[in-house]
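Sequence of beta-glucosidase (Paenibacillus curdlanolyticus YK9).
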Amino acid sequence: MSKRIVTAVAAAILLIASISAYLNIVPRQAAAEASRSWSVYQDTTQSIEARVNDLLGQMTLDEKIGQMVQAERAWVTPKDVKTYLLGSVLSGGGSFPNDKQSDSTREKWAAMVDDYQDAALSTRLGIPLLYGVDAVHGQSNIVGATFYPHNIGLGATRNTGLVEQIGAATAEEVKASGTNWAFAPMIADPQNAKWGRTYEGFSDNEALVAQMGAAFIKGMQGAAIQDLAKSNKSVATAKHYIGEGLTDNGANQGDITTLTEQQVLDINLPMYKAAVKAGVRTVMVSYTSIQGLKMHANKRLLTDALKGHGPGQLGFTGFVVSDYNGVQQITKDWDGNPVSGLRDQIRTAVNAGVDMLMMPEIWRETIVHLKDLAATGEISQERIDDAVRRILRVKFESGVFEHPKTDPALASTFASDAHKALARQAVSESLVLLKNDNVNGSPILSRLADMNKIFVAGKSADDIGLQLGGWSITWQGSPGNTTPGTTILQGIKEVVGDGKTVTYDKEGRGAAGHDVAIVVIGEQPYAEMHGDNLNGLKLSDVDLATLANVKASGVPTVVVLVSGRPLIITEQMNDWAGLVEAWLPGTEGAGVADVLFGKRDFTGKLPIRWPFYAESYKPIAPGKRNLDEDQILFDFGYGLTKKESTPALKPVPAKPPVR
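Predicted 3D structure, token representation.
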């Protein structure tokens, strides 16, 4: 063999050996590189705390600050989410995909949220978003969703099992639309019905609020914290901490001047203790002040009472989020030092215990200030890490790292027949029979099913928007056919069937000759601020005119009130044989008819005291209620059945002076 051939063979052998070695080494190198890039926080077999610690340890200051800021959809793009490393986005009331109410469908919501989520996932660490919505009586931002009775109606049911089911059903529709964080339930104490958010509370009885709130949370998140990671569960929010409903004269975003901090805690902290025990993962701060100090600046209540682990403290391990622009209302800190300007307000809020800042429009400025405050040490690294640790903990617990996008399998749950049936049941159980006079020898409500000629009147009888109230598609809600549903009139026609006559006149004309007149009246839609002391809680001129028209006919009248709170009916109710409080029932108005004309009986009990006058409310005093007994027309827990006649009612007291 020539030297040239030997050299060639040797070279070939060396090449083969080299290739073999390369083929053997490359997989091992790739595996090693993959091993280095795969972090503990991505490993689902690791504990939540191990994952949190690993991720937190890899984060830059910019990434941490991004997690602490929540922007509103109208002022942030998916590109912004990636650029600024944001941790959360919200849609406030009326914040629709493409800014069009016609685009407020489940499909377009899911596509929109997934776009934001894709942006978050494309960042260096791929930390997914929490996307928040006010799902206060169903996924109430979306046309076609199931709208349940507002909480005041659920409080009337006394049925915690039902409320837990509603929490679970709401979570399904929240998740089916791409969102994963519901700003619900309201853990409030509406002591004065002049407050425009009364209907968002379950009751003015703190024990009942605690029971109902805990049930809703368990339904929405699951009975155990491990359940929260399921695809059909949503992060819940106990709001608004603390003192909601105790403000002077029922003022929204008002001050509590008649109670000390400790007295407010004594009254309201047990409700939040129940929520924390039920596993709620986020708490939203109240706009309320106590003795002039805004809750967003109250370190004693946010950090100590809520998050502390000492005697009487709640040991809350989730995170605290500010309310919509609530930080900007801060004027002093917990020691009474004056606070002015956005930078100082942010410093005060975060150091008081706010972990995530809901800054809808000015989120960029918020990031700038947070970075500067961290650089100067005015907000410590320890405090930033605590806030981010809490936020990451909830994200890992919720399963959003594993399932960040909309689950197509949940589409079938949205506005499903099962959810509508549940809502209809809730409506029926929420009705409270307040007056049931004898007509021709028996209580009138016991005889409705046997009547053949039924007259229906009132603006609220055939209007879905009035049944829904506020926080329905838009922030304040609106009358009209805003979403698919069944009106009370449609429900009556359905339940009584074809063999009977149902005549409707909105203004109440033409009632003569009928067996009974069902007059459905009540409030226009409203939400916070706009609903405060609306019309002095009186019936509107339109409703009074309708009642007068029906009264002139001489036909026995049953009034159905569609309202978010007690209305002042002292001067009118003697004209009515029957009176039913239907609250704000939602989309399933047939649930009202199921009780009026069907086989269901009234089971609801008042969740709130009903005053004779709006002026009946007194300032709240320590250890005392703000309504004297003689000023209560219908007390907490009152409610009749069809066969129970109206009992002897209290004599009408003198009207107190305007307070």
